[in-house]
Amino acid sequence: MGNYILEACVDCVESALAAEKGGASRIELCSDLVIGGVSPSLPLFRQIRKYTGLKIRTLLRPRYGDYCYDKYECDEINEEIRMFREEGADGVVVGILNPDGTLNTEQLERFKETAGKMEITLHRAFDVCLDPMQAMEQVIELGYDTILTSGQKPTAWEGRDLLKKLQEESRGRIEILAASGISCEIIEKLVPYTGISSYHMSGKIEADSAMTFRKPGIGLGLSEQDDYKLFRTDSSAVKASVDYLHKTFV
Hints:
This is PF03932 family protein CutC. By secondary structure, the chain is of the alpha/beta class.
């Protein structure tokens, strides 16, 4: 695969197939990307294992919203880690904060122990933590493999200065995986600026639902207008990014 990573974030089999077609290194599997992603189901994981040969890291997030979880939610995450480890996932993606914005290192250590030999990522809870440099050192000490981050800004390009600092200060001790607003065009600008060679993208395009009959005046969850819009990974967007990374880092 070379000295780079292109991770595609997907929430359905169709998007996983597109990611594989585009040459993605691995996928982050979740459900409901439209709300930022929550934990996927075991049947979805099994379907993607059945139809693709991609490495799978599973996002474990019990709900939308912030990353300050209660005891029950922490136990839920830990059970999911065990479940996906036993199912053969390549890795898990987790994160949890204390009310004061610091990392909940006690739970993160517990998650790492349960994960065992699986790869483990600290997700974008990192982007809303109090002190990113301290947080990076803490998860390195805990033995995490990856930090998924936009540099504490809405997009990776906006967060490029912190991304550059993280890449420099990490000194190869942990993978810095740049995320949010990632496209080939953005990667082409971030690589020379930050030196980062690992990127996370959904590459999503809007697809229309197969429904031809649409009952007016009733919303199914988001809004009446958006209920028949589906977001799917575009294999050509993934391929363009992979082609650039391959040319640059191999």
